[in-house]
Each structure stands twice: as C-alpha cells, then as structure tokens.
Amino acid sequence: MTKTLRVVAVSGGLQSPSKSASLAEHLLDLIAESVPCERRLVDLGQIAPQLAGSVWRSHLPETVERALALVEQADILVVATPVYRGSFTGLFKHFFDFIHQDALIDKPVLLAATGGSERHALVIDHQLRPLFSFFQARTLPLGVYATDKDFANYRLQDEALIERARLAVQRALPFLELAGHALVTEVDEAVAA
Description:
Blueprint (H helix, E strand, L loop, with lengths): L4 E7 L7 H16 L2 E7 H9 L9 H12 L2 E7 L7 H8 L10 E8 L7 H12 L3 E2 L4 E4 L3 E2 L2 E2 L2 H34 L1
Helix pairs in contact: 1-6, 2-4
C-alpha cells in the first residue's frame, strides 16, 4: 500500500505577487516532478492580518489554524522567506512560534530565501538552519537563495539558479524517499492492526 507524500511550502513574503512565493512554488514543482505528492502553499501574506495580532494559538482564527495544521501534518516542508534586516521576516518567525515544538521532528525541510543582493545569502545557514534545528527537523543539505535579478515577472529566469534549485531537490530525493518509506510503513502497520 502506498500513500502520497504531503509537501507543504511556507512563503514568508508579505507582498502579492511575491518572489518568495514564486521560489517556493518553483521548488514545489520540482519536487512534484520527482515524487508523487500532494502539494500545498501557505502564503503568509494572505493570512498576515489574522496572524499578526495573535499571541496565543488558542486565539488564532480558523484560517491560520488550518495553515499551522498543514505544516504540522506535512511529510516534507519547503520554506522560503524574504530577507529583512539580515534575517527572516518577523511574521515568518511569528508563524513558526505557533508550531508545536515536536511537530517537525525528523521532517525534511528544504530551505530557501530571497533578497535584494548576494550579501544576504548566508541567511539560510545563519538564520533558517538554527530555527529548524530547534524543531529537530532534518534541514536538507542544499538551500536555494535568489536575488531580485534572478526573477523576471516573478518567475525564475537565471539558469544558474534554476540549476541550483534542481540540484537542491535532486540532493533532497534520498530524504524524500525515506519520508515516503516511513509513510508506507505507517500505513501498512495501521492496516495490519
């Protein structure tokens, strides 16, 4: 028996359209080309008004709760955030502050970020990896960082970046296959019980 992988991307971009959302969607497309999956995008820009004023998860509106549940129930996570003042956006962190601290244990996470220049490329290793290490997630080996010049009309245009995104997903495949194998084992055990 097989089960389709649930791949969820979180875009921390607050504008619409958003380069971060575009990068997240591109990575989702590449994953979907490689493994059978159900894909979803959580766009923080769309839920920002409901998210920003809340300090307790029990006070969150249903739309935000559904987005949090998608992330917590995902088999694979893709995160993409714009760089703001040398780090991820405050709303991106605020969203992940509501995620249960055990919900991402051993979950493969593909890290991505967008910024105005190459100067902020280390945000992936210096900001995103530590955040997801707290959750004990399995951050995938290769992150993807894109600058403004890598996009045309909010679509990736730079061939080197497109190749890096392809390589990031290719290097992630063994982890994704492990996640898929774990799902099949869980389904088989549930059916046997």
